[in-house]
Amino acid sequence: MRYKSEAEIMQALGIDSWRNLSRDKMIRFAAMMPDMDTEVALKIVEQFPVFKDFAKDAVDAMEKAHQSTLSANKQSQKHVHRAFREIREILKGELSKDDLSWEEKKFLIEQIQETGRLEFQKDSENKRFLDAALRKVMVGAGAAIGLAVVFVGGKLIAESKDSPDDSLEA
Predict the structure, then answer these.
(1) Which residues cross the membrane (predicted)?
(2) Dihedrals φ, ψ of 100, to 5°?
(3) For residue 36, what are the β-bridge partners?
(4) How many domains is the chain built from?
């Protein structure tokens, strides 16, 4: 669909005023830009002098959420590693007893080895989690930067149309 007026775009976004343009709708607006007449899109974008601030705020919010996730994850990992260390200490204490049969010693050694395997698995799982969390932040930051590029690109197009050099090339 080709949008030819501000009213059509506002209706498609479900807003009565550009002041009602939420972050979600701002993203939707940016996605709609290729379907807008250039002059209409530029006229609308000019009404958002704080668009750059919006993109910066979006990236900052993602960064804060990511840091919060990393902090909570770090604490969780400390608790897991401490618990495994405590379990191994208990098992080593039991293993140092003199009156254990070979079977009992073998069982305790296997339990110590198992805690090492489990801790390694937990560490690998944590690394996958961190990788996925980082990817989400990168995608979100990319979207915000993309919106800013669309905004700046629109302004550059508008400025180049108004430039006297443009008439010389035609």
Answers:
(1) 137-158
(2) -90, 140
(3) 3
(4) 1
